[in-house]
Amino acid sequence: MPAVSFSARMTRLTTAIELAFTSPRGFARAVRFRNGPPRLANLVRLIEARKPATIVEIGVWRGETAQRMILAATKHRDGVRYWGFDLFSEGITDEIMKHEVSLPPLDISEVERRLAGLGASVTLIPGDSIETLPATQLPQIEFAFIDGGHSYTTVSADWRNLSGRLAPGAIVVFDDYTNEAAVEHEGYGVPALVDELRKTYPVELLEPVDTFPRPYGTLRTQLALLTFSLEAALADGHSKR
Ligand SMILES: C[S@@+](CC[C@H](N)C(=O)[O-])C[C@H]1O[C@@H](n2cnc3c(N)ncnc32)[C@H](O)[C@@H]1O
Q: What phi-psi label fits residue 217: left (phi over 0), alpha (psi between -120 and 50 degrees) or beta?
């Protein structure tokens, strides 16, 4: 365990140094949130409580939340499997980043290196999740973190493509349930999707709310936790794959 913690700390330091040269916005974020943005601590708490064996993350970015989630899961059980979907640096463009309200990811081999040796089976799937998620064989998923493209089109496709693969009682966490101003000025699609889904599924908006200054005012963002049930899925028109 100490070796893993040291490696995770070194990874964060390396990330901050790299970002200082490549992305001032990313660097400021890395320094302020060297232990991750406060809202994301919920993921570790939920994984420690649920002890899932199968985890999907859509939007891996630099693998930092993936590391935390995998370590939380492997602390409690063997046989943890993690699937991470991302465009990675090979597939991202400035235009996609703007349209999807995204951050610049690393290349897939670097993320693979960061997630190796944490005690889980790790599968990284490069490409647009709208295409790669339906094309990937998955077992029933017990825990999913949806944090890839943030346009309504992408996040709603990610939900549709994942919902038929969820285990009964699975939990799905959406990042970036934001305030209206952020939807209007930056194009976040998560609030509209989550507000639709909460008519069918139990959804809890998790504290804390993280805040970031923006030219238009303040971006307020929090996680939305959806608990999946087959009954609700059938009522919602999804079929089990
Ligand atoms: C906000 S970052 C994810 C942060 C990560 N979940 C974490 O907590 O460390 C969003 C990621 O989604 C990826 N992304 C954006 N649009 C995507 C798409 N259509 N398909 C796959 N990945 C996408 C970006 O490359 C970026 O790495």
A: left
